[in-house]
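your task:
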Amino acid sequence: MEQKLPYLLDIVLTDIAIRLVLRNVLCADTFIQNYDFQKMMDNETVFNEDDPLCALYETYTTVRFIFITLATVIACLGTGANLILIHIFAMKKSASTPATLYPSILAFLDFAICLEYLLLFGVDAVVSFVQVKSLFYLYYAYIIPAYVASRITQLAIPYMLIFATLERLVWTSENISSRFLLAMYSTSGRYFTAIVSLLVCVALRLPTAFAIEVAVYPQCDDFFRTMTTQPRQWTYHSDIYYFFDFHLMTITQTLVPFIILFALNIVIIRKLTVTTQKKELLCDQNQVHVDSLNSVISMSIRPVKSVTASVRSAIMTMVAIVASYLISNTLHLILTVMERTGNLHLFERNK
């Protein structure tokens, strides 16, 4: 049974490589969550000034286009890699390997985030910089569903990380007495938790679909300024929606997962450190008490025996994945607060 676990180690190592690239190099989380917020606000300002004939046009510089192109290439690689990862998790199921439901869902969500990046930013770069008219109408046909899907994905990722991390914590525990955890991490419990969580994420982010619209400027002479995305008028006057979209969702998506994931990973690392120290102590005792070593291991320190090298690597992999998430989410939170408060560092100063 133990010999199949190294294969799982290869899977999770591939998993962490993909996720670290996506979160820290591409920074897709931050980009998608802050998608076009300032441009939407600017559109409202321009709209209120003599009702212009053309939509606000955001110029693509060469540097920006190159950067987004490179990020798009990474997103393409991430899309393919996560599809492979999903296939591996689906095909390689055995009683000797840890449960892969949450890692499979995370792989799917990362696939979705890559695809959404391509749709929201890759296509937009081609339309705006290269000025491909055939993609212009297509882009604005799917932009709202793609944007809403990205918000749902962003909300779901941290909670799937919490469930996966909590599962790793269970692996490091000697005895689980909580009936709630036992039920939650049974086969049916995992599916129930995942399905309910995803449905809640959809419900919380669905209002976004009714808060933005594609504005059309039919009298504009510039073809690429005849359409744009902007918030619906009612959002500017709704304090309830502002509180929900900014304060409540920031707490739900960023602060709560940050605190929970940080605490869980501290506990996991501490448990693994203690386990390692006990294992080293047993190795030292082996020189004097060879005959009694097996009984000491089996009777006194079950976690050392249960946490194998491969499972240990899987646990540390999840710790690293969560750490990368915490870093990128901190950046996202800073940018979001700066945007919502109109920080001057985000604007070009007129010379």
The longest helix spans residues 239-285. Residues 184 and 193 are 7 Å apart (CA to CA). The first strand starts at residue 212 and ends at 216. The chain is about 75% helix and 5% strand.
